[in-house]
Amino acid sequence: MAKIGNIDVGEFPLLLAPMEDVSDPPFRALCKEQGADVVYTEFISSEGLIRDAAKSVMKLDIYEKERPVGIQIFGANLESMLRSVEIVEASKPDIIDINFGCPVKKVVSKGAGAGILKDIDLMVSLTKAMVNHTKLPITVKTRLGWDQNSIKIVEVAERLQDVGCKAISIHGRTRVQMFKGDADWAPISEVKNNPRIHIPIFGNGDVNTPEKALEMRDKYGLDGAMIGRASIGYPWFFKEVKYYLKTGKYLAPPTMNERVETAKTHLQMAIDWKGEKLGIFETRRHYTNYFRGIPDFKEFRLKMVTSDDSEAVFEVFDKILEKYGDFQFSL
């Protein structure tokens, strides 16, 4: 049974990865309903929080039904990170996660995210200071290293654990790789199988089929899987993985009716949370996966991703159900 601090997160928990403009409250709620054990917010800039930037502050919204929920922050300045911990605490999350893995240039160029992989001492000292600054469990999400020649993830994990980090999620790529090539889970397994490590080690990167989650558990011996891109527009992935881990069989995919109803719920929740314009815009990225596999679907897809009027989008959903209601999705 995996535990993050005193929080019991279950046997081989499935975690929703923090994803910019994806893992917002509406989507987290849908993933939670479909079996995600722990969900994380989009990553939040510590500098944005202490400046009271509207976009950063809005990302602090969490709801009771999401628990356990982690708020993820990034930054490289100690004072800003400590002040942001205090701001985050007011939202009463269960976990505070530090992003030491985001490979995006605008984050890395400030020495934050994966940029900190060039300065492991700073990574450790920041983590230690944050652990000492809050009673909430501090966890870390990171990558294998900056590049192939600087992978020291076993040592890094030991040092993070030693300063009080309660769990580590490791993406099986270096910063230089970005999202290219295949994720390498072997170094993550080395971390987990290090006899000195006693905190949960979660694997991340390329968990896009139930079989891969099984492999992460049984072949690599990890404590859980953090799922990112495979869940976009497909919150059912969590339920399907759990079913497969339990039975070795595939769960029947959601029906057209379930997909349409979920897409409607998602859009409505997004509009309620962030307003019509942004709600419509930020839900678009999910539609392709909600309706993946339907033949001759281009016309509907185009209307869904170009319309700026929610009524028009809801109308498209109804027309999809009308035309493809009996469509059988393959496993």
How are the secondary structure elements laid out?
Layout lengths: L1 E3 L2 E4 L3 E3 L8 H9 L4 E3 L3 E2 H5 L3 H5 L10 E6 L3 H12 L5 E6 L4 H4 L11 H14 L4 E6 L9 H10 L5 E4 L14 H7 L8 E4 L5 H9 L5 E4 L9 H11 L8 H19 L1 H15 L7 H9 L3 H15 L7
Parallel strand pairs: 3-4, 3-11, 4-6, 5-6, 6-7, 7-8, 8-9, 9-10, 10-11
Antiparallel strand pairs: 1-2
Q: Top keywords for this entry?
A:
331 residues; alpha/beta; TIM Barrel; 2 domains; 8-stranded parallel beta barrel; two-stranded antiparallel ribbon; 11 strands; globular
Report on the structure:
The model has no long low-confidence stretch (mean pLDDT 93). Helices cover 44% and strands 14% of the residues. α7 (153-162) links the parallel β8 and β9. The protein is globular. With 331 residues, it is of the alpha/beta class. The strands form two sheets. The chain has an eight-stranded parallel barrel, surrounded by six helices. The longest helix has 19 residues, at 256-274. It folds into two domains: 7-247, TIM Barrel (Alpha-Beta Barrel), CATH 3.20.20.70; 256-324, Non-ribosomal Peptide Synthetase Peptidyl Carrier Protein, Chain A. α7 (153-162) runs parallel beside α8 (186-192). The two termini are 30 Å apart. It has helices at residues 25-33, 46-50, 54-58, 78-89, 105-108, 120-133, 153-162, 186-192, 210-218, 237-247, 256-274, 276-290, 298-306, 310-324, and strands at residues 2-4, 7-10, 14-16, 38-40, 44-45, 69-74, 95-100, 138-143, 168-171, 201-204, 224-227.
